[in-house]
Amino acid sequence: MHIVTAKEMYDTDRYAMEELGLEGHILMENAGRAVATQVEKQVSSKDQILILVGKGNNGGDGFVIARTLLQRGYSVEVLQIPSDEDIQGDALTHRKIYEAFGYGYHTFEDLNSLRTFSSGKNVIIDALLGIGVKGPLRSPYDEIVPYVNQLEAKVISVDLPSGIPADEGISFEEAIQSDYTMVIQYPKVSAFLQHTAPFYGEWKTVEIGLPDHLLRSKPESCSVWTKEDVVASLPEREPFAHKGSHGKGLVIGGALQMPGSVTMTSRAALRAGAGLLTVATVKDVISILASSVTEATFIALEEQAGKINSVDGIEFAYDGIAIGMGMGRHQEGEKLLEEVLKQAESPVLIDADGLYALKAYLPHLASRSSPTILTPHPGEMAHLLGVEVPELLQKPFQCSRQFASRYGVFVVLKGAFTLVTTPKGNQWVHTTGNVGLAKGGSGDVLAGMLLAMVMQPQSIEEALNNGVFLHGSTADLLTEDTHSTYDLLATDLIDGLSKTYRTHLFE
């Protein structure tokens, strides 16, 4: 499923009309009827529906939705916000068709007229403003939007909630708080931003017949990674495979004060499918690990005050390496990480404390011949970028893409919508997972799963996306069945992986 900016949506519309001959009023008919069909799933014949119509394409969609619902027997009124003269183009075409069918509409005069026509209505369809919105709302929308938000009616938006910009990095003051949003063809970037996504409520895309040509050919694409993608790309295990066939991995981390992190990473790597695993940590942590990660082997590293002081003694003949979990933030961290990155000729995944040690080495990352994978949460990513967290969250797509391209790394930016970015700028968003993952250790488990995935016969981007998907879907499966979002623990994810593999992938 493609994710688009406003420009990409406009370009796709224009291509469909100018190059393929799909006239705008036909696309508008398709959009309005598709939305109406989805609206029917949210309303009943007893509902009283008011459709608020703006002057652009969203307003034209509103007239098609109204006509379609009226034809299907629903109780619908239309309140047109702009003057008659402001309705033009395809929207005007569909208003004329709406009138030709014998249906009438009301015209907005002031807020009192909205109060009058919304009285008794328990469903409001927001067809006011589209993807071109930028900045504060103008009159009369700056009055209409807060008024709609205080109504007790169910609110359904067309394409995106009015007032929400389609793109990232654009400020706004007020927007419709929707219960449901019927997204036209492709979700917009703002559906996946922490500060704008809540305005969408539940959302669903509706197909209107636009071509994928332009989006498929873009050098920097953005999509949602789905279960179908996992099933298509996760490699099947060969019947004559042996433990070496499934990857020989190394985990480096674990200070005496934080043995749990490296324990969870190691267990998750093995449960996710790593064939062989070695854990390099301080001596006293090995005794803690040995009883819970019995399948692993261990390397005792030099230490100081219970923290790793050197990686001497490691031969870097591994298919994948993960470093940083529970390593601690100390003076030797930068040197340790630099040694690993210089010597390892396999993918290196850097997480947690390793990310804080990485900043001084950033200029040298692009020279690595093997993949480097960073798995930051927003705080860690902001530290690497040298910005504040709110600035990062305003434009995570842009920040991740620029960073990944500049340093030649893969970035897994963790969050409510985890974002995977390649050095070439391709991006995938993940919608699996829930607030139960907001617990200490969830990231350590993900790091172990990703280590296991990158050692399997699949591309790095497939490995990272499959790992993130499985991590989130395990949380979803567990909270549907045996756990709640309150009691879910990171260790539950490790134990729940077997059920995810069986029920989600190998049905």
TrEMBL record:
Binds 1 potassium ion per subunit. Pfam families: Carb_kinase, YjeF_N. (6S)-NADPHX binds at residues 57-61, 130-136, 141, 159, 326, 377, 444. It catalyses: (6S)-NADHX + ADP = AMP + phosphate + NADH + H(+); (6S)-NADPHX + ADP = AMP + phosphate + NADPH + H(+); (6R)-NADPHX = (6S)-NADPHX; (6R)-NADHX = (6S)-NADHX. Its EC number is 4.2.1.136, 5.1.99.6. Keywords: ATP-binding, Isomerase, Lyase, Metal-binding, Multifunctional enzyme, NAD, NADP, Nucleotide-binding, Potassium. Residues 9-216 form the YjeF N-terminal domain. CDD domains: YXKO-related. Residues 226-504 form the YjeF C-terminal domain. Gene3D superfamilies: 3.40.1190.20, YjeF N-terminal domain (3.40.50.10260). Its cofactor is Mg(2+); K(+). The keyword Isomerase applies. AMP binds at residues 414-418, 443. K(+) binds at residues 58, 126, 162. In the C-terminal section; belongs to the NnrD/CARKD family. In the N-terminal section; belongs to the NnrE/AIBP family. Homotetramer. Catalyzes the dehydration of the S-form of NAD(P)HX at the expense of ADP, which is converted to AMP. Together with NAD(P)HX epimerase, which catalyzes the epimerization of the S- and R-forms, the enzyme allows the repair of both epimers of NAD(P)HX, a damaged form of NAD(P)H that is a result of enzymatic or heat-dependent hydration. Bifunctional enzyme that catalyzes the epimerization of the S- and R-forms of NAD(P)HX and the dehydration of the S-form of NAD(P)HX at the expense of ADP, which is converted to AMP. This allows the repair of both epimers of NAD(P)HX, a damaged form of NAD(P)H that is a result of enzymatic or heat-dependent hydration. HAMAP family: NADHX_dehydratase (MF_01965), NADHX_epimerase (MF_01966). This is Bifunctional NAD(P)H-hydrate repair enzyme.
